[in-house]
Amino acid sequence: MLLIKQNKQIMGRKFKTNHILPTALILSCALLGSCEKNSFDPEKVKATYEDKFPVKDIDPNMNWKMTNQISVNISVYEDTGVDYSIRIYDADPLEVNSSAKVLAKGTANDKLPFTTQMDCPTALTEVYVCRTDAANRNVVKVATISSGALNVTFGTSPTTRTFTRAVNNSITTYEPERSESEVQALIPQAAVITVDDANKWEFFQSGKAYIIPEATTYKGPINKHLNDGKPATIIIAGKWIPTNMDIEKGYDVCVMNGGEISIPDNQTLSIKNNSRLFIYKGGKVSGEKIDLTNGSAGQYNYNAGTIELENLNISTPGCTFYNCGTVKVDKLNINNRGTKFVNQGKTEIEETYTQTTIENGCFLTVEKFTGLSLVLGDNCYTKIEEFNPQWDTEVSLGANTILTIEEGKFGKTRFKGTAKPSLVKIEEIKEVNQMTSEGAVYYEIKEHEGDKYKQFVKCLTNTGSTISKWGESPVVIPEGDCTGEGNNPGEGSETPSGPIPYTYVFEDNFPLVGDYDFNDVVLDVSINHDRSSDNKITTTNIDITLAAAGATKTIGAGLRLVNVDRAAIANISYEGDVNRFQNTLSGSVLANVNFEDGMVIPLFGNVHGVFGATPGTMINTGIATAPTYTYKIKIEQSNAYQRESPVISKDNLDFFIAYKFRSMQQRMEVHLYEFWDYGATKGGTVQKENLELAGNNTWAICVPNFRYPKESVNISTTDGNCAYPLFLKWAQNRTPENEDWHLHPNEKNVYR
């Protein structure tokens, strides 16, 4: 038995030698220019390959494969029971005139994540995941691929909600430290302020009450410095026009309903030390400027009435000005960290100063914000016309808050949301530099184009934040006193739907060395999957577009499915330019190919015949032009093989070209390097001995969405007079930074 087995092995080797020898001998003669010994010299053939191939010192780990399989898990925790369409793109699908291509698509809801395996270009390290609702409104997250996996979540899962402590951005509601009723109770015993009395040093005393009565106007000073102890209470029920502009230590100034302080032009009313200002509902302060320097001992100033000033200056650390009424100021000047303006009413500001901190819990508009910190509470509205804050400014966003920015500069601006949604609407991005975002912040951008927009979107990578077109975010906020008009999502829009094409380019001179322009046959192939409602794949659609023929010889092409169970395929049908492809098969080198014998699908038998061109014509490589034609293959999968991850992916598609070589009976086949180990299809040869001698040189590559070289232009040369100068660098040193060589062509030397 052992002898028989050995004989079989010997016979097998003899068959292989006889099978290879004719071509190897031809190759040896053709390359070496001599057949004197009528023998095949492997060492000389190998040396010739090494000499003639334009790529030297190829990375020993090079397999020429430019895609990977990526594990995908996309979860959506938004509206319960609502299905959302999921598309994963290679670029931003929202950008104006976007060229983004779909890598994978499916469905997700709060019970069903979209999980699958997808083909992905190796140069692609981040993708754009688009979640689309029934109204065609789109929100996009940018995410990186990490360790061969892509994990993205829209919304917050119930588990995360249970165990994650969200930041509470609700703004504190202050009650006045002295209530209006308490002050009113002092009116009967309050001394009326007159000019004569006010100028007497002994008139104002700590713990006493003083009043400007209703329907009276007092024009005079209140300026005595009081000792420590209970403050004097100044009750303004009428109108006060200050003449001495300093309120010294020891006063509580209380503006009652109907009362008013009117500050003269070009004057500043300074409230100093521990003196405080209380403006109750119906009270009013107006005029030029107030300077608050009374931040000691945690004191704060309170407004429930109306303030209309040209300048409100808060200059002492630790001071708080609280508003639950109406404030209109031309300039809010806070020049100390730790000092803040808190709004629970309606505030309109023209301009802020550099150290300004604003906490907004209701309605706020600012024409120009150049401050230090912005804290926006739950269910509030903020509009900023010109957002130009200090470097490293933090913007905290509460739940269901709206921030609208007309023009924004984001220099290390830190947006911090919570687990609940907030909305930031930006009309124009002026500058972006090291901006960050966290939490469930939905950004709506009006202009989706330009470098600054792209920089902004990049800053959202791997955050909880999303990007949308204007009016398409899902955040619903009712209108109200604090939320203005609120927010209701508008109409949706279209995003690109085409799958990413993978371009298969072939050299047709095997087993000889060709001109390395990789355009003798060019196929653009796209793969997409039909899925059922549970994301299981029912059909694989393979669209094959014949893009170019730089060859002059008659060449056919086929597709072999590798590592696919025959039982997985229920039916195969064809659409598109079927006749143009199939009519060229009769009498060709692929005429007798049968799918049941090796799972091979013949595509065409004569590349020029598909184009309807004269044999020998070079088409769409810079010589002659012709329309492209598409052959659509629809592979329906058996029920038992319908699953979330593809049974047929790019890794299973062994595209090859075939032609008659010299006097050989078998057709010569050129396959991608990654499929060399599978050998030839039935009736063909790949001349394995030649492949072994060629090392990891190649006659075919597949490049994502490739702009192939023009006729006779080498794909890469050391002098740079080529199609892709960086191809050599990638071939010789396959590192992540070299993977994008195909994105940097020499424009004059590529065809499209």
From TrEMBL:
Domain of life: Bacteria
Residues covered by the DUF4842 domain: 535-742
Protein name: DUF4842 domain-containing protein
Organism from which the protein derives: Bacteroides cellulosilyticus
Lineage of the species this protein comes from: Bacteria, Pseudomonadati, Bacteroidota, Bacteroidia, Bacteroidales
